[in-house]
Write a structure and sequence with these properties.
By secondary structure, this protein is an all-alpha fold. The radius of gyration is 18 Å and the shape is globular. The protein has one domain: Na+/H+ antiporter like fold. Helix content is about 80%, strand content about 0%. It has 14 helices and no strands.
């Protein structure tokens, strides 16, 4: 219950920053092009620094083992999401590819990092790094095949070579070899990492503003997909992970990441591969708004298990 209450408080803080993003967009301070630049800055620069800095902790055999357990948990969570999405969303649906990728891949970077950092601090982000690595690899393999129907080794390599995954590998190397940054570099990188929460929520606010919210909230089908993404899949993941009786922080990190709203990457994929990007954007918008309530609920249920 305590974690759920803290998460709810943090979601309120984050949504207040999101409102700033909405105002900035309405006032034309941040344009569509400007938001794309901010999104790239967050994804390609800030997030990798957050991940890398999470590995700047003292090496212990226990943490090393938990790191690989967390990676295994991330694989399990994505496997559960893929299974449920393919069962619950049939090919008869007009936009089945958009709905499936939206149900499977969460906003684990933009929304997940601030929440995990607030709840569990640096150690939580340390476990989260494994989830993000698995997320990126699967997005550019399973996600790419889902959206295009093609298998392309170039995109698989691109997924493995994304900045966030590279940050994970560099972080693991430094962690295992006990390489620590000198004081000035640590301070500089910490400042960059601190930009994550405000930047992520401003980007989310601008993105939501550019969507047709009134049209989105009238689409009943959206709520079905959001229910799968925000409630069914994370609770199923929590049930399975709890069977392993692992460290609570390790388990809850994976559950919370799975419970995050639809990933912004789903809209980016829809645009890139000429799918229904408007519908993808609507799923992103509605799920982000609903997550303010759904995330604390999922955390509370997972704690009670």
């Amino acid at each position: 219950m305590e974690l759920a209450f803290i998460a709810f408080q943090k979601m309120i803080v984050m949504f207040m920053i999101l409102i700033v993003g909405i105002i900035a967009c309405k006032a034309k301070i941040v344009t569509k092009e400007g938001n794309a630049v901010l999104s790239d800055l967050l994804l390609l620069v800030v997030n990798p620094f957050v991940i890398f800095m999470s590995f700047q902790i003292d090496f212990t055999p226990e943490l090393f083992v938990k790191l690989w357990i967390s990676m295994g948990f991330a694989l399990i969570c994505h496997a559960i999401a893929i299974l449920i999405a393919y069962i619950a969303i049939g090919k008869k649906s007009e936009n089945f590819d958009i709905e499936r990728i939206s149900a499977i891949y969460s906003n684990c970077g933009f929304i997940g990092i601030p929440i995990i950092s607030a709840l569990f601090g640096q150690e939580g982000v340390f476990y989260l790094a494994s989830y993000i690595a698995v997320f990126n690899i699967l997005l550019w393999t399973q996600g790419y095949i889902l959206m295009t129907g093609k298998t392309d080794i170039k995109h698989i390599v691109k997924g493995i070579c994304s900045p966030c995954v590279i940050a994970v590998f560099l972080g693991i190397i430094c962690f295992c070899l006990k390489i620590k940054l000198f004081a000035q570099a640590e301070e500089a990188f910490t400042h960059i990492a601190a930009m994550n929460t405000p930047l992520a929520m401003i980007v989310a606010g601008v993105t939501i503003t550019r969507s047709n919210i009134l049209k989105a909230i009238r689409n009943i089908r959206l709520y079905y997909v959001c229910f799968l993404k925000l409630i069914i899949i994370p609770i199923a993941a929590a049930f399975v992970l709890k069977l392993f009786k692992a460290d609570n922080m390790l388990t809850m990190t994976s559950v919370i990441e799975t419970a995050c709203p639809v990933g912004a990457s789903c809209t980016m994929f829809a645009i890139r591969y000429n799918r229904n990007s408007v519908y993808a954007s609507e799923l992103y918008t509605v799920s982000t708004l609903l997550s303010a309530l759904s995330l604390p609920i999922v955390i509370m249920i997972a704690e009670l298990m």
